[in-house]
Design brief:
The structure is a homodimer. Chain A is α/β, with parallel strands linked by helices and about 400 residues long. Chain A contains 15 helices and 17 strands. In chain A, the strands form four sheets. A six-stranded mixed sheet of chain A has the order 2-1-3-8-7-6, sandwiched between helices. Chain A has a five-stranded mixed sheet with strand order 14-13-15-16-17, with helices on both faces. In chain A, strands 10-11-9-12 form a four-stranded antiparallel sheet.
């Protein structure tokens, strides 16, 4: 069945904000068997919204809109949907209670603009927004469903599982869907695709392999459809076992995991504590680890040594080494990793030092030159990366590679 | 005049890749006076592309497409445009020469798939792609223009200035467009909207205010249109000055800036260096600062003191204070900020200590309880936040508020 997405908001249309909601919606509904027919991004304009909803309804069974639900007068999605689906506006007492709860939590006073967020078209059913004040609205006509969700990505992403569950109940499908992931590092997507090609070609028609490459870590997702869960699970397991054997040492993790989760998992299996010493990644590795709830059993902390004075002062990097080799060198990054173990009192440490750009390059150390290291109780290892792309991409990739170095040094 | 954008590609539709081309196109053409009528994201499917181009041409004078120009068989944009605009394919010798040049640079061998990238519809005019192999194609019919650009963001962004220059020559437009931003913190969107309502209602019809709220920091954008740039600039300035007077102390910055950019700007104006001591934000503040190129004149580094042992060991937080007040307390967060100034040797330090959840809460310190502090050479100030939302949101908001505290303490 087909799903069409409508993203509403001037700020997205003029390129001030990058839309991530359409991707989140597609990633939620795609694996549930929905075909994404298209995405329309339209301004906060009644005629444009009306036109988009009509066009989307003509091509899809389900239309998911986001945006234009705020309390200010440029937010007109709700009134436009009321025009399309008919019925007056009504003030919903449960939405009012939810808004009051959210405002009380935030210590803010209600006002009429906010209270009016509880006005919903009488033609819709409300799903309470547990992540904000604007209600999720469900409209239905001639067997087709339009769902209006908030524009704030945090709220939309938070509500998507509940909304997807409502959709699954409404369009009850008997199909059993299964997804299995393998995380693969240290190989290019095309090289991996070449290695897996014979296996992939032999997959039965109800199974499909998707490559989800991110810098430094490829997520392979095997999707399967069937009618009997037990049969499908056994079949998926056989295929995954075959794929693992073909991938070999480049397999980083079985399941869906980020590089930070793989590093935490490695430390937990060895009962190690972990810290980081970051120069060019500037706290990105620590941030990615601490984004994971419950990391405190493993992660002790970090020294972001952006300035050389911090490398020497807190991490004990040798001034003579800095002078002789430069901050971006094997010697310094290994001293940083060893120094972080001492300074933070952790068993393992991950360290980075490199040139993220656009400035700071030298003829022999161009932008993208990054040394990464990790120190464990038994060894300190390091690796030189030469990464493509702009500053954000270099930092992102360096953080991923450094996190993977920890478990990879043992796997190899 | 109106511009419509079409983004072509299965990988974007299914949420595997986030589209950034539509934003880049809008940011290029918006300030040149083009109204963005809408963005359509469609699959690599001839019928869908044909339908989108027809619909876009019915609403806009200019249609810019990206994607579907690669050498593989799922890339069909070119052939679909040939169907729409007529004419056979022809092999363009200049495009062939460009492809050979790019391949030589990358040290790759040409093959027939690649050579076929030089086949273009006879009905189009070619603009050479100086950033890759797929040519930019310009189609025209009944005074309306369709431009097909590559999907790779680096290539599209690289070619946009040249394409925009061609468009400006073709449609000599008289409309002048201006955007001005104000960053506002410490107030809810609805309270701010209430305060600004009389001013907003009195705006002339050629000006429009948009609210772009992000956790902790609201971006207000005033858009204006005119025919005379000087008159419009003066008018925008008057309106911005009035808005600033109404916003008062909650104004954080004039212009478009992130919280990290506002903090860096504050330090540069005072010739201060900066460091952070992060517990619950786990490196997020350092990561946001170091994401900004050229931050090293201000930013020295960070101690991510996730474990209490790091708070005492590296930041000199007093064990007795930790025992008496707990890590999430005014006393500890102020000691962290002061300790970071000493440990990192920086003039100013930003510190955070809180409960990001989902675990770690106590009856008097629920999830979302965060103490933030900043220390400057003249004072150390702190603030208690009670933040809504999940772990990611608490961390995000705490980082923003802590960054804003640095400049805000002086503004108040």
């Amino acid at each position: 069945m087909k799903l069409s997405i409508i993203i509403i908001g001037d700020e997205i249309l003029i390129g001030q904000v990058t839309d991530t909601n359409s991707g989140a919606i597609a990633r939620t509904f795609g694996p549930l068997g929905w075909d994404i027919a298209g995405v329309r991004t339209v301004p906060d304009d009644a005629a444009a919204i009306r036109h988009a909803v009509t066009a989307a309804l003509s091509e899809a069974h389900l239309v998911v809109c986001t945006g234009g639900l705020g309390p200010t007068k440029d937010d007109i999605t709700k009134h436009t949907l009321a025009e399309i689906f008919g019925g007056p506006m009504r003030r919903d007492p449960e939405v009012t209670a939810n808004i009051e709860r959210v405002f009380a939590l935030r210590g803010l006073a209600m006002n009429e603009l906010t209270a009016a967020q509880a006005d919903v078209p009488a033609s819709c059913r409300v799903i309470q927004n547990r992540f904000g004040t604007a209600p999720v609205m469900w409209f239905e006509r001639d067997g087709r469903v339009v769902i209006s969700m908030p524009g704030v990505p945090f709220e939309t992403e938070g509500m998507l599982p509940e909304v997807a569950a409502c959709v699954a109940r409404r369009f009850h499908s008997d199909t059993v869907l299964r997804h299995r992931c393998l995380m693969v590092g240290g190989i290019s997507e095309s090289a991996l695709a070449g290695r897996l090609a014979p296996w992939e070609s032999a997959l039965p028609p109800h199974m499909h392999l998707a490559y989800l490459p991110a810098p430094g870590l490829i997520r392979l997702r095997l999707d399967g459809r069937g009618v009997d869960a037990e049969v499908l699970d056994a079949e998926m397991q056989r295929q995954i076992d075959s794929a693992k054997a073909i991938i070999g040492p480049e397999l980083r993790y079985e399941g869906d995991a980020t590089a930070a989760e793989i590093a935490l998992d490695y430390c937990r299996r060895h009962a190690y504590t972990l810290g980081t010493a970051e120069s060019c990644t500037g706290g990105t590795i620590a941030q990615r680890i601490t984004a994971i709830a419950g990391c405190s059993d493993v992660f002790l902390g970090s020294v972001v040594s952006y300035a050389n004075s911090v490398k020497t002062g807190l991490l004990g990097v040798d001034n003579a080494t800095l002078d002789a080799c430069g901050a971006v060198s094997r010697e310094v990054v290994e001293q940083m990793a060893d120094g972080a173990r001492r300074a933070l009192g952790c068993d393992c440490a991950i360290a980075t030092s490199g040139i993220a750009g656009p400035g700071g390059a030298t003829p022999d150390k161009p932008v993208g030159t990054v040394w990464i290291a990790c120190a464990t109780p038994s060894a300190t290892v390091s690796r030189l990366l030469r990464l493509p792309g702009n500053r954000a991409r270099v930092i992102d990739r360096a953080a991923t590679e450094a996190l993977l170095l920890l478990s990879g040094q043992v796997a190899h």
